[in-house]
Amino acid sequence: MKEIKSLNNCTVVITGASSGAGRAMALEFALHQARLVLAARNEAALMELAEECRELGSKVLIVPADLSDAKAVINLAGDANNFGDGIDVWINNAGVLTAGEFDKVPMEVHAQVIQTNLMSFLFGAHAVIPYFKKQGSGILINNISVGGFLPVPFGTSYTASKFGLRGFSEALKAELQAWKDIHVCDLFPAFLDTPGIQHAGNYTGKVLKPAPPVYDPMRLAKAAVSLAVHPRSSVTVGSVSTVLRLAHSLMPELTAGIVARVIRTYLRTAEPTEVTSGNVFNPLRFGTSTHGGWGLPGRPKAHRKYIVAAAVIAGVLSAGFLSGRR
């Protein structure tokens, strides 16, 4: 297995880099003096991030692009290859979210969620793999989320895209087995403290908040750097992600039903707000930071009670599963 000894001057492409997890990854890779190619729709946010990364010692190219456009992604790969004399790491990260009852969310919104969350990953892989094959090496990292295992009621197109991503990545890994130095790596983070939910398309009529616990996106960024140096097939970020993944694998209908009831209960009491398509079709001017303000940077101790509760739920589900088999 070929591993990158040092990220210094390695060319790293990050899509969806203008805020949240993508921004966190850019800053973390900049600490290692990687040569960065940052892509997103929000050019102003990319310019600001680029300056921060350069201050940390990185060379940076920004490429304003709509990652749901296949031609734009092909151009991105070409620009990255020319900038770095090759591409070492490509991180598929661009994503959007829409919440609401399936039939009340416009079909064009569902379609765009799929286009951004699923197709942009396929576009990225399709654009970069020829460069990897020519070089004989490369690392593709897909930021999928725990949503690749856990269905999210009232977020049906989001779930469809994430389940699709997991299947796509597994199939691609099998296809590339003969290429020993080309690696496809998946990240499955739990809920992150990013501006993502503030950007979400919202057809519930209620203010949206992330389900606790939320994790510092810098943990995900460190995991991405680790994969770039020591590639692995998949990494789960956050204990809750592991617990939810286990619970759904043991009792899928029960777990999904519990999640649906929790969401319905929240929506009954949440504050009202206007319906919006959020950033599904166009970038927003606000919320371009790394954190969304839902938690504290680092590893919040307050999360322990949620981890314990999740572990108890997993234990109950496991017991029910085993009892049912008997």
Topology:
Layout: E1 11-15, H1 20-31, E2 35-40, H2 43-55, E3 60-64, H3 70-84, E4 89-92, E5 98-99, H4 107-135, E6 138-143, H5 156-175, E7 182-189, H6 196-199, E8 201-202, H7 217-229, E9 234-237, H8 239-250, H9 252-269, H10 304-325
Helix pairs in contact: 1-2, 1-7, 3-4, 4-5, 8-9, 8-10
Mind explaining what this structure looks like?
The protein is of the alpha/beta class and 326 residues long. It has one domain: 3-Layer(aba) Sandwich (Rossmann fold), CATH 3.40.50. It is built from 10 helices and 9 strands. It has helices spanning 20-31, 43-55, 70-84, 107-135, 156-175, 196-199, 217-229, 239-250, 252-269, 304-325, and strands at residues 11-15, 35-40, 60-64, 89-92, 98-99, 138-143, 182-189, 201-202, 234-237. The strands form 2 sheets. The protein has a 7-stranded parallel beta sheet, sandwiched between helices. It has a two-stranded parallel sheet with strand order 5-8. Helix 1 (20-31) packs across helix 7 (217-229) and helix 4 runs parallel beside helix 5 (156-175). The longest helix has 29 residues, at 107-135. The radius of gyration is 19 Å and the shape is globular. 51% of the residues are buried.
- The CATH class turns out to be Alpha Beta
> Order of helices and strands, N to C?
EHEHEHEEHEHEHEHEHHH
Oligomer status: single chain
The largest sheet has its strands arranged as 3-2-1-4-6-7-9
Shape: globular
- Runs in which pLDDT lies below 50 for 5 or more consecutive residues are 297-303, 305-326
Gap between N and C termini = 44 Å
